[in-house]
Every structure is written in C-alpha cells, then in structure tokens.
C-alpha cells in the first residue's frame, strides 16, 4: 500500500511538472492562432490553425514579408504581412510594390492576380497619401493583407506599433493537407 501511494505521488508530481512546462511554453514562447476571415488569402484561409512564435521578435527584429499576428485592439488580433519597416517609404504604382524606390516582387499574390479582372489587386498609393508620413516611423511597421481587395490593413488603420506584435507565424498545422512553414512564396 505504501508503494502504491509513493508511485501515485510520483505520477502526480510528473504530471504537474508537465502541465507547468506546457503553460510556460504556451504563455511565453509559442501560441496557437486560428485565422478568421479572408484578408490573407490565398496564403492563409479562414479556419487555418497556426503556430505563432512569440519570442522571435523579442530577440530579433521583424523582417520584411514576415507574416505576423498583432493586437489590432483590446479584443481582436489580426494576421497580416509586414511590408514596411521603420524608415521605409512604401508605394504602389500600377499594382507593383516599391520600397525606398526599389521594385519588389510579391509571388504570394500571383494566384489572386491571375484571377483578378484586369490583373490589379492593390490600388496606387504613396505612404504620405495614406498616413501623412513620408516614411514608416521608428517603432512602427506597415502591414498589408494578401487579399488586397478585402483586407483591413495599414492602408486603413495606419501604422502598427511594434509593441502590439504577438509574434511571427511559424507554421500552419491545420488543415493537415496544407501543413507549411513558408509564407513568402
């Protein structure tokens, strides 16, 4: 009987340690996120389940074209793609992205561009026209959804404070047929 109690205690202790480890990892390192809406199509679909790396931006800086989750307000988180970093001047001319005067391809838009009437997805704009600022301010980023015609992004809500970033999307794990780690191509 004493042996049974001792073994039970060891199992309970091991389970408690396991739960604490899982909670620490979930709270500080990684989080699960479910995509709601169509703003990131065709890259991400409504209902996709993602793993978000919460610590990546604590030890490194956001990079252009990363897909990330950020707090849009107290109640909602959005998933979008980083287009402009601090000091960048972003513009669109004839459906082509220019950052600091240099053209950038956006292969993740190809599928929608082929389906779009006239092949245009993103209206022409300059950073100053949208925000009144010529460049992305320090501590901020400029984000766009991949579904440019149906996205509430920096064109409407303005710059995103880097302190509101939850983390970088590291993996899509659902649906299983679409498991993936890369969201740039």
UniProtKB/TrEMBL annotation:
GO molecular function list: signal peptidase activity
Entry protein name: Signal peptidase I
Domain Peptidase S26 intervals: 9-174
Matching PANTHER family: CHLOROPLAST PROCESSING PEPTIDASE, SIGNAL PEPTIDASE I
Endpoints of the signal sequence: none
Record PROSITE patterns: SPASE_I_1, SPASE_I_2, SPASE_I_3
Family as reported in the entry's similarity comment: Belongs to the peptidase S26 family.
Localization per record: Cell membrane; Membrane
Catalytic reactions of this protein: Cleavage of hydrophobic, N-terminal signal or leader sequences from secreted and periplasmic proteins
Membrane topology: Single-pass type II membrane protein
Keywords: Hydrolase, Membrane, Protease, Transmembrane, Transmembrane helix
Transmembrane segment boundaries: 12-35
Enzyme class name: hydrolase
């Amino acid at each position: 009987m004493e042996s049974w109690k001792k073994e039970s205690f060891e199992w309970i202790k091991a389970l408690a340690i396991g739960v604490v480890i899982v909670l620490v990892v979930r709270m500080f390192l990684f989080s699960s996120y479910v995509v709601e809406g169509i703003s990131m199509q065709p890259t991400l679909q409504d209902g996709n389940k993602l793993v978000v790396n919460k610590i990546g931006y604590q030890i490194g800086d956001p990079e252009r074209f990363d897909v990330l989750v950020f707090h849009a307000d107290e109640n909602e988180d959005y998933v979008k793609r980083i287009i402009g970093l601090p000091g960048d001047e972003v513009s669109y001319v004839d459906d082509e992205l220019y950052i600091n005067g240099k053209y950038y391809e956006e292969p993740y838009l190809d599928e929608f561009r082929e389906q779009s009437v006239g092949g245009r997805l993103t209206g022409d704009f300059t950073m100053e026209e949208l925000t009144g600022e010529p460049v992305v301010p320090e501590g901020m980023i400029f984000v766009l959804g991949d579904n440019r015609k149906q996205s509430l992004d920096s064109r409407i809500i303005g710059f995103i404070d880097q302190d509101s970033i939850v983390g970088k999307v590291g993996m899509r794990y659902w649906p299983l047929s679409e498991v993936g780690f890369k969201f740039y191509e």
